[in-house]
Write a structure and sequence with these properties.
Length: about 375
């Protein structure tokens, strides 16, 4: 049917536009945070973009249901505003006929949400954790931004690099300060580079053509040593294997595990795609034809339903994680209640009836002839 094809087309185009806007806001917010961490030396500058992409992929399975919910609301509300839905209804095509394109969209979007929830998002979490863990075990020099004084993670040293040659990976005009055993040491060098020992896997910073000043604060006696080559060990041994968070575990490992935390994560991954058909049914139910009434109450009700649904589901999962609830029945109860509510609202809306039945209706008054009104 032409109407179904047009509805699917407009919904997908609208969802793409809404998703683009929401992702742009998400990227800007996360980028500011990553740049702040890079300026503090807690994050390598060269890894910002890949981490930004991985963080974005991690939340796609949560963003998709909201985007489709908003898209269906926007499309149907525009049809109501332009009287297109009224003409369609007058032609004998009711809201029930929209179930076919809704089922198609649920299968497509639900399938994408399942792919992200069960495979792609955990994979992105593992890669992001690996990058962050590798940086934590790298030397203090790697995270330094040229032209900025940076403190070491241990807090007992400060580094400053004037320039960094990206091609040769050589630091120019290096300043290093360290404090140990009540003795301060300052090293300045024209250039430096990093080297890893093949036997011990220790990481060294090799300074060339510089001077070292060493002494005790408060005393005038200082040792001054000029050198051609000076090595500073900045990393010890082989870094440990990165620890993977629960949300980064493979789905197959969650299924085979008896651990309560892993079972809770599996239930949460199943729960995220389940909201797609429920929200789509709500969106159609809240778009019934009534051009005489304001559309604002329905829009407010739509967002109230979305936030209530998702927050209650998240709260149920949080109770499982804390061990307050050992079983997941209360989470499925939340899905069941909202599914029944969506079916009820769709049933009432398809028959052009109010969502809340009017139990007490005022009966018309019968006026007898010959009596004054």
């Amino acid at each position: 049917m032409i109407i179904n094809r047009q509805f699917i087309k407009e919904t997908l185009l609208t969802s793409a536009a809404v998703t683009l806007v929401m992702l742009s806001i998400f990227l800007v917010v996360r980028l500011v945070g990553f740049l702040r961490d890079a300026a503090d030396g807690d994050l390598p500058v060269e890894s910002i973009m890949i981490l930004l992409l991985l963080k974005l992929v991690t939340y796609i399975d949560v963003i998709l249901p909201l985007m489709m919910f908003v898209a269906v609301l926007m499309v149907l509300n525009r049809w109501v505003r332009d009287n297109e839905l009224a003409v369609i209804s007058a032609s004998g095509i009711g809201l029930v006929n929209f179930l076919k394109p809704i089922v198609f969209l649920v299968l497509v979007i639900g399938g994408i949400a399942c792919a992200f929830s069960f495979y792609i998002s955990p994979l992105s979490v593992r890669y992001a954790e690996k990058i962050e863990e590798e940086f934590k075990t790298r030397s203090d020099i790697t995270g330094i931004v040229p032209g900025v004084f940076m403190e070491t993670r241990s807090g007992d040293g400060i580094y400053f690099v004037e320039k960094l040659n990206q091609e040769t990976e050589i630091y120019e005009n290096v300043f290093a300060y360290s404090s140990a055993n009540q003795t301060d040491g300052v090293v300045v060098a024209k250039e430096a580079y990093q080297r890893k020992d093949a036997r011990t896997h220790d990481q060294f910073l090799i300074l060339k053509n510089g001077t070292r000043y060493e002494g005790v604060p408060g005393y005038t006696e200082y040792k001054i040593v000029e050198f051609e080559t000076y090595a500073i060990r900045v990393e010890l041994g082989i870094p440990p294997a990165p620890s993977i968070p629960v949300k980064g575990f493979k789905t197959a490992n969650l299924i085979d595990s008896d651990d309560h935390r892993l079972q809770t994560e599996l239930v949460w991954r199943i729960s995220k795609p389940m909201v797609v058909p429920v929200l789509m049914l709500f969106a159609v139910a809240l778009s019934k034809v009534d051009v005489r009434r304001n559309r604002l109450p329905n829009m407010l009700a739509a967002f109230f339903i979305y936030f209530s649904y998702t927050n209650l589901a998240s709260f149920a999962v949080a109770l499982m994680k804390k061990g307050t609830m050992q079983s997941s029945w209360h989470l499925w109860l939340v899905h069941g209640i909202f599914l029944l509510l969506a079916i009820y609202m769709f049933y009432r809306s398809s028959r052009n009836k109010p969502f809340i039945p009017r139990i007490f209706q005022e009966r018309p008054k019968i006026q007898l002839s010959g009596q004054p009104s």
